[in-house]
UniProtKB/TrEMBL annotation:
Subcellular location: Endosome
Protein species of origin: Discina gigas
Main subcellular localisation: other
Free-text function comment from the UniProt entry: Component of the ESCRT-I complex (endosomal sorting complex required for transport I), a regulator of vesicular trafficking process.
Family (UniProt): Belongs to the VPS28 family.
Residue stretches making up the VPS28 C-terminal domain: 151-246
Keywords (A to Z) from UniProt: Endosome, Protein transport, Transport
InterPro entries: ESCRT_assembly_dom, Vps28, VPS28_C, VPS28_C_sf, VPS28_N, VPS28_N_sf
Name recorded for this polypeptide: Vacuolar protein sorting-associated protein 28
Underlying gene: VPS28
One Pfam assignment: VPS28
Amino acid sequence: MEYQQRHAMSAPKYQPYAPSPYSYTPSPHSLSTSISLDEEVKLSTSSQQRELNESLAEIYSIIVTLDFLEKAYIKDSINQEVYTPTCLRLLGQYKTLLKNPGVSSVFGDLESFKREYDIEYPSATERLKIGVPATFEQPAHNSASSAPTGISAKAAADATQNFITFMDALRLSFTAKYQLHPLLSDVITAVNNVTGAKEFEGRQNIIKWLIVLNQMGAGDEITEAQGQQMLFDIENAYNEFYKNLH
């Protein structure tokens, strides 16, 4: 018994853990000087970075809103008189934001942006790729207001002028997207103001080239072969449109 007591007294006392020579236990004082729980975390450190973040957030919200709009139109929850201007406004805002070189470089393209933020929104994706409202692709046939009882002379003249302006641009060797896309958008808008719900041969060619231009980068240009084919298709569309006026 005495031996056991002496042995217990002489045995080394072990620590509950063995600190390594590289371990560090921060003091409460050092924590309080480096981290403040009341301090606001800033997502940007400059006004330029803040504006960039706000622009990317705007693009995100446009995609979400456009997807909701497309689904509402498909379900007949809204009519084309509400859908068309709203869709045009969203598409215009999207294109305007991407005209900023800084935003465009960070955005990349639509698919990479969707991967970055882990989103899908297929209806909005399709509409952004096409670049025009669904009513421009296939005018609604179920709306009484979409079929004009008579053709406005001014609307017909505007459409004709837009056709001629676009074809002249091609003949003058305009090849950049930023030159051609607005002009062709004016063509389809003016055509719809005249034809309403009436389809005519050649409309799909206008839509086809709108999609091609819309999917190009802001500084991209069409090839010579594309320009020739585009002129041929739009001339045919114009001739068919003119026949329908009579």
